[in-house]
């Protein structure tokens, strides 16, 4: 088994297509397929903030659900969009408003289809993926070793939001502990969620959210090769969105 784990897309559809091309995928029946049979895995946060969330949902749904040529784990933005589609009261902010705007611009038939596609994708997703063939665990915001195998509320919060303390920074960001510093496991933990300028390796963890939607890059981590591949973002660069390290 060979996998390409793709970081947070956030509606940056053009960059996703560029990344697939750089990784050597070729289009076949409307989806990118690798000639060596590599499996793309999306690490969550497909939508929000970027320009093409609807197109991104379409492609990922086709790859994961219809053609079964990719896999996906949900992120916190996926969770929020799912709750929006359920009809729950969620605040249209922190990027959700861009996806909702795109969604509302569709005709009724397309809205119904996209809503169904995304909800199906989300409902069929595992909270995190354990891939013994490449000695890796893929979780949106990471996972502690002692949580692997569990899916209770505490683990779900960690996987979607990181190791949050309950406090917030002055700018509203949640205070998060740098759990990767304490990871002692033998398996790779591949995650995204927190934008970094370069893929960040600590112990046997790697953060591959290189902040494409904030103008940096879209990255993939390839296993078993243990290499990263990135393409530059087409979005404007927002330097304050990048933090050199998590708070301890």
TrEMBL record:
EC number(s) per entry: 3.6.1.17
Swiss-Prot/TrEMBL cofactor(s): Ni(2+)
InterPro entries to which the protein is assigned, alphabetical: Ap4A_hydrolase, Bis(5'-nucleosyl)-tetraP_PrpE, Calcineurin-like_PHP, Metallo-depent_PP-like, MPP_PrpE-like, Ser/Thr-sp_prot-phosphatase
Span of domain Calcineurin-like phosphoesterase: 1-196
Reactions performed catalytically: P(1),P(4)-bis(5'-guanosyl) tetraphosphate + H2O = GMP + GTP + 2 H(+)
GO molecular function, one term: GTP binding
Signal peptide: none
Cellular component aspect of the GO annotation: cytoplasm
Keywords per UniProt: GTP-binding, Hydrolase, Nickel, Nucleotide-binding
Top-rank lineage group of the source organism: Bacteria
SUPFAM superfamilies: Metallo-dependent phosphatases
Family: Belongs to the PrpE family.
Function, in words: Asymmetrically hydrolyzes Ap4p to yield AMP and ATP.
Name of protein: Bis(5'-nucleosyl)-tetraphosphatase PrpE [asymmetrical]
């Amino acid at each position: 088994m060979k996998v390409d784990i793709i970081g947070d897309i956030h509606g940056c559809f053009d960059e996703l297509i560029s990344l697939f091309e750089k990784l050597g995928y070729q289009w076949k029946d409307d989806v990118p397929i690798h000639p060596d049979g590599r499996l793309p895995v999306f690490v969550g946060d497909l939508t929000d903030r970027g320009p093409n969330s609807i197109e991104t949902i379409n492609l990922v749904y086709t790859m994961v659900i219809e053609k079964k040529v990719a896999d996906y784990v949900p992120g916190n933005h996926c969770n929020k969009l799912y709750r929006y589609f359920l009809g729950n009261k969620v605040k249209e902010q922190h990027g959700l408003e861009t996806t909702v705007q795109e969604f509302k611009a569709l005709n009724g038939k397309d809205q119904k289809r996209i809503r169904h596609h995304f909800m199906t994708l989300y409902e069929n997703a595992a909270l995190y993926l354990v891939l013994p063939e490449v000695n890796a665990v893929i979780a949106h915001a990471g996972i502690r070793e002692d949580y692997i195998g569990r899916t209770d509320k505490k683990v779900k919060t960690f996987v979607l939001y990181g190791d949050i303390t309950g406090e917030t920074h002055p700018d509203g960001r949640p205070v998060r502990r740098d759990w990767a510093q304490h990871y002692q496991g033998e398996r790779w933990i591949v995650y995204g969620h927190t934008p970094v300028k370069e893929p960040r390796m600590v112990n046997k963890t790697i953060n591959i959210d290189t902040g494409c939607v904030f103008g940096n890059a879209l990255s993939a981590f390839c296993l078993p090769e243990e290499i990263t591949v990135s393409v530059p973002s087409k979005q404007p660069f927002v330097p304050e969105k990048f933090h050199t390290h998590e708070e301890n």
